[in-house]
Amino acid sequence: MKFTLSWLKDHLDTAASLETVAETLTRIGLEVERVEDKAAALKPYVIARVLTAEQHPNADRLRVCSVETGEGAPVQVVCGAPNARAGMLSVFAPPGTYVPGKDITLSVGTIRGVESRGMLCSGAELGLGDDGDGILDLPADAPVGTPYAVWAGLDDPVIEINLTPNRPDCTSVHGIARDLAATGLGVLKREPMPPVRGEGPAPAAVTLDFDDYDRGLCPYFALRLVRGVRNGPSPDWMQARLRAIGLRPINALVDITNYMTFDRGRPLHVFDAAKVAGALTVRRAREGESLAALDGRTYALTDEMVVIADGNGVESIGGIIGGEATGCDESTTDVLIESALWSPANIAQTGRRLGIITDARYRFERGVDPAFALAGLDLATRLVTDICGGSPSDPAIAGEPPETSHVIDFPWTEVRRLAGIELSRAEMKVSLESLGFHIAGSGDRVKVLPPSWRPDIEGKADLVEEIVRIAGLDRIEPKPLPRQSHVATAVLTPLQKRTRLARRALASRGLLEAVTWSFIPREDAVLFGGGAPSLALANPIASELSDMRPSLVPGLLRAAQRNADRGYPDAALFEVGQCFASDEPEGQSIRAAAVRRGTGGHAGAGRHWDGAAGPVDAFEAKADAMALLAALGVPTGGLQVAAGGPAWLHPGRSGTLQFGPKTVVGHFGEVHPRVAKALGLKGVIVAFEITLDALPLPKHRPTKVKPALALSDFQPISRDFAFVVSRDVAAGEVVKAAASAERKLVTGVDVFDVYEGAGVPEGSKSVAIAVTLQPVEKTLTDAEIEAVSARIVAEVSRKTGATLRA
Amino acid sequence: MDFAELERDLLAQVDAASDEAALETVRVAALGKKGSVSELLKTLGAMTPDERKERGPLINGLRDRVQGALTQRRDALAEAALEARLAAERVDVTLPVREAPEARGRIHPISQVIDEITAIFSDMGFSVAEGPDIETDELNFTALNFPPGHPAREMHDTFFLPPDRDGKRKVLRTHTSPVQIRTMRAKEPPIRVIIPGRTYRHDSDQTHTPMFHQVEGLVIDRSANFANLRWVLEEFCRTFFEVDGVKMRFRPSFFPFTEPSAEVDIQCSRKGGEIRFGEGEDWLEILGCGMVHPNVLRNCGLDPDSVQGFAFGVGIDRIAMLKYGMPDLRPFFEADVRWLQHYGFRPLDVPSLVGGLTS
Fold it and tell me: Where is the FDX-ACB domain (chain A) (predicted)?
């Protein structure tokens, strides 16, 4: 919402400065977005007379002008404008002036050998429109030496406020003035508005063609004919104001409707009566109807839209935009002025469907003052007869304004209860009354009747807002929120703790935390098991941000590749965030995932004097996953690592982490070459992903006591075994078998070598393990150690088909 | 040979021994079983007491001195050998070691700031609530007092999911406020929660991304009022920005789910691209807040005449940018390793009130 200071002062009697007005507006919730003070910006530009304009000695298109600026001797200016001529009045800027239209600051210059001390300006150079064909050519009575902005009436600062959608009353300058008056900044001017005396009945009746159910679509419609108008340009003052707020003056009748829209928040429409065929009917549009509107576009209408029609068909889309065919132009002599009320919801819906944004729609969808419909028509009629002449008819009226009055039972203590501020009853009363509220009764509880222009006021809380808004929120003194009476307890859930810890744990492994989009390209979603239609956005912002991600991995993979493309090939990235399996809350999970590319392993990337890092492999990803589980304190007793994983992983170089076949918690491995190709990934890249919600929680225990520590007094001993097994046997099976051979004694089994090649039969591999034996009761004899070793060998052979390597 | 000559000779040999092996040869030749000094010692047994009295001390003295010289020489040789070894054993300590994983890893500023916010609010008795990113229209809008078709809905550029069989469309939550409803419907007052999370709006330019982060606060009890709200927000800003005081400006505003509503600006100065709080002439909008709207309380089955409270919403990305000086929002989500290394936080810098939010 834009207006000028002088326009505001038409409604508000105040001596307040522009700064005070702007500050007050923001303080009461009418946030000032911008104040444009052209007079200040254009101060150096003065009206000047071109005394002489001689041909430039060295340039055909330039003239050397002598310019009288109203101060001192005439100034020499080189000017390239085709219209520069002796005797004309134009606008002069001295050296040192900033030229907004060109974004330069003038200096004394020499143009083709002739000195130039300033500039004669076009409107475009002043930032005032695009009439850049030549310098401004002012009328002969323009006073030389006067600042141009003052003379041209540009010295009226324009204020733009960022209006919240709950305040239709402040879509008008009058409403804004009322709010300011309530703060005591000035006095609201209330001009008497006697009804217009019609000179005869309205010629055309208006029909509201709705059944009872639809009556609310247009509850009220008032129309008046003014005969014998002369529709030329509107007066300068009106044009200046409309221009100042960014509207283009068209003709007096149209300008009056626009002026009323901003001055009073009362959108109107004018029909050229000569072009209207018969009586007007307000009704739902019929399928197939369309309207060529005043904005030059044609709109196809549906029966959900409300129109004004005559004998020729649809002439206007109610409350939104009029039709070209019945528009008013210079030839209009008889005009029909419409002032109606429309359903805000229907206006909003129609406007959205048709994609029309007009000042009328903006107001009607927020709620126009129903009590001002007829008074607004009268005010507009008076402007028409004042400016264009003519004689008005009586109004033709259909329907009636809806009842808006609802009384709020208001205890004054509500202000203290909700706002925590003690205000005097007198102050609260004055605030409400100056905003137009009626207060009945006295004492602790009163009846408050909101004014007709405030559809946003529903109940007590709204009244509290009005009171503290006008009083100023800054008057509310902060008061401590009472602290709890006990020492703070933990506030995070186990999952929240794990989510936080997961980030720290993974970052501690040298990974960088990324936050990538929740929506990914559809192709990526499909590759990672997603792509369900229910998870595809209906209105994605870009085609590559289209589907809710089923996994964190694709986003991280693409990020790693982007970094590689930028010259950082060894990205090691992780993310902890939400993934989506369905559009239900239960379908959302929290996952932790990491990718490592190139040589970006845990130990560090790239070449190093102490040994270069090799390319990352599945075990880097496994190490990250296992480290995360350990850091989260996941009881890993039952954890199984199964070969293979989902389709996005290399089938032979991936694993699945599970606590049983149905409790899969994650995967790790090398990215499948096909997936890598589809995502445009180059080079080796590994990943893991763990679903944090799926991880078992530690058992709740009644105390924090740790299990007793049993220390043996006897030295542990270690024995090495090298087994030859089929290459299909997992090393994990060998380890498991060795551990199970002598559960009491074996406390550790480590794989220290895996070998395939010369010395080992084709199709087999050698797996070397170190078994730690921890005697508990006594030192083992050599014979006992031999016996244990034999049992280990036997057990591993039995379970894996292994033989001891010769 | 007289003793003096023997001694001179032996000591000369000790001195001349250039390594441990040579020294051992000297020792054996002198003090070994058949060594020259040992042979002399053996003669003591056959002597008369008088002879022994005279020659005993001489022979024993000889032995002791030879012995001493041998020990001294051995120590000197060992010392020299160690010196030689140490002189050879030299590493170039200027060679770089690999950077530790803990030194390389980084926490994203959003995660860090959420941890900071949590630390502050947990001290004020708030717990952390969460909700799904994919919300129903009812929870994202209607229950929060955005009637269907109301222009207020257009303040939010909403992402929609496809309509289901009944024509209902879910949305990506446009704010964290639906979790207010979830919380109030699930839990009896008193309620003190913060709700950090991802939010989505169909908007993209220099200062807007289609995904961003918000933290919502909600307090519901029998007395929480706007004055308490001011205190909570001022305490939060002072603590979060780690300054002695902040000046805040509360401007009346409009949110469908609060009444009265306010937007809050924070006073700051901008010098050379750096924003400082608690000084200066500029105002920066940082959050929206208000008393929970009676309709919202009713929508959660609460009686607005007996319980009351306030809510606020802060842009996490925005306050992260303000505190840590990132000039642009979009790189937050681009995973550029250079940006993450520069603006990210070390993994062990866990924000707490005990140790300070930042180190």
Answer: 712-805
Q: Where are the domains of chain A?
A: 2-37+157-188, 40-151, 206-399, 408-473, 494-694, 717-804
Same domain, B258 and B163: yes
Residues 44-73 of chain B with CB under 8 A from chain A are none
Q: What per-residue string of b and e applies to A150-176 under the rule 16 or more CB within 10 Å gives b?
A: bbbbbbbbbbbbebbbbbbbbbbbbbb
Q: Nearest C-alpha of chain B: how many angstroms from A633?
A: 18
In terms of C-beta distances under 8 Å and separation of at least 24 residues, what long-range contacts does B283-287 make, across chains too? B283/B249, B284/B322, B286/B237, B286/B314, B286/B315, B286/B318, B286/B319, B286/B322, B287/B233, B287/B263, B287/B312, B287/B313, B287/B314, B287/B315
Q: Does CATH place domain A717-804 in 3.30.70.380?
A: yes
Q: Can you give the residue range of the structural domain that contains B79? A: 3-88
In chain A, residues with a C-beta closer than 8 Å to the C-beta of B260 are 418-419, 461, 464-465, 468-469, 473
pLDDT digits (tens, 9 = 90+) for A719-757: 999 999 999 999 999 999 999 998 889 999 999 999 999
The reply to whether residue A481 touches residue B228, judged by beta carbons under 8 angstroms, is: yes
Long-range contacts of A525-533 (CB under 8 A, 24+ apart): A525/A549, A525/A550, A525/A554, A527/A554, A527/A647, A527/A648, A527/A675, A527/A678, A527/A679, A528/A553, A528/A554, A528/A646, A528/A648, A529/A646, A529/A647, A529/A648, A530/A580, A530/A581, A532/A582, A533/B162
Q: Determine whether the interchain pair B200/A518 forms a contact, defined as Cβ–Cβ distance below 8 Å.
A: yes
* Of the partner residues B122, B170, B340, the one whose CB lies closest to the CB of residue A488: B122
pLDDT for the residue numbered A42: 85
Q: Which residues of A touch B151 (CB under 8 A)?
A: 165, 348, 365-366
Residue-wise pLDDT tens digits, A425-457: 999 999 999 999 999 998 999 999 999 999 999
Q: State which CATH number among 3.30.930.10, 3.40.50.300, 3.40.50.10540, 3.40.640.10 fits the domain covering A494-694.
A: 3.30.930.10
Q: What's the CATH architecture for A408-473?
A: 2-Layer Sandwich (3.30)
CB contact under 8 A, A534 and B161: yes
Nearest residue in A to B114, CA atom: A500
CB atoms within 10 A of CB B81: 12
Question: Are A541 and B335 an interchain contact pair (Cβ–Cβ within 8 Å)?
Answer: no
- Tell me A659's DSSP state: S
Same domain, B56 and B152: no
Cβ–Cβ below 8 Å for A548 and B251: no
CB contact (8 A) between residue A573 and residue B95: no
pLDDT tens column, B114-144: 999 999 999 999 999 999 999 999 999 999 9
User: Residue A636 phi/psi, 5° resolution?
Assistant: -100, 10
Q: Which of B106, B219, B251 sits opposite A29 (nearest CB)?
A: B251
CATH class held by domain A40-151:
mainly beta
Q: Chain A closest CA to B304's CA: distance in Å?
A: 10
Report the complex ipTM.
0.90
Q: Which numeric CATH code is attached to A2-37+157-188? A: 3.30.56.10
Helical axes B226-241 vs B316-324, angle rounded to 10°? 40
Residues of B within 8 A of A509 (CB-CB) are 101, 105
> What percent of chain A is helix, strand and coil (3-state, nearest 5)?
30, 25, 45
- Mark the binding-site residues of B, compressed into ranges: 259
Q: Do B259 and A462 touch (CB under 8 A)?
A: yes
Q: Please tell me the predicted confidence (pLDDT) of residue B1.
A: 56
| Residue numbers of B between 211 and 240 with CB closer than 8 Å to A | 211, 219, 224-228, 230-232, 234
Inter-chain contact A583–B134, Cβ cutoff 8 Å? Answer: yes
